[in-house]
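Hi R.,

Here's the chain you asked about this morning:
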Amino acid sequence: MQQQEINHALKNPFQPILKKVLKVDEELERLSSETFYNPFDVLYLGMEATDEDIKKMFNSFSKLLHPDKCQDPRAKDCWQIVDQAYKTLMESEKRKVYIRIMREAREKTEFERLRENKRREKTGVAPLPPDTFESDFQKQCKNLFSEIEDRKQHLMRLESSQKRYKLDEYERRKMLEQYKVLTEEEWEKTRDDRVNKWREFNNKKTAIGTKQSNKGIRPPTENIEARPSEMPTKKGDFKNIKLD
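And here is the predicted structure, written out as tokens:
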């Protein structure tokens, strides 16, 4: 709300410095209670701010919130937010990215307000007040930066998940390689024992087929069954059967 009230009072919403008077308590409360995705918002700067404007606001914050000058326990964390915003904006390439997003937000704000005013004109309703443009612009900026941050966090989670998968796969392969090495070592250690057992088995197999090994083996005796010389052809012929 504080940022919106300040912006509403501005005659030129795109001037480089949006607030020139800073108060320690207000800034400590603002920086410690809000989440900032746009470094321009941290330093009360518009997208047209120059390097000189950025340094000027940074020095103003430094006089108020630097831990060496401010004894409030929140000062350290608040100063880190200010310092990070300053470093980001002083890198021209990063600053261009934020400016491009803010320009996109301004274009969307202009388009939506124009569409809303046309709708109001058709229904006989008064157009949107001009002094609400900046508040709409700030809302659009926050929405865009919030969406970008959400996508960024999502990509980071995906990247972290992929790294974790690769790490798990690496550990799995490493374990398999270690198991393979241990198995091969165990196989080599028992090689002599396996060779000796195989030789003993072959020797026993060879010994079974020799004559010496067959001495104790005797074939079964055959009992020759007595058979009749002539088979009976009639019922009474069984009495006259002669055995050989």
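One quick note: Residues 133-189 form the longest helix (57 residues).

Cheers,
M.
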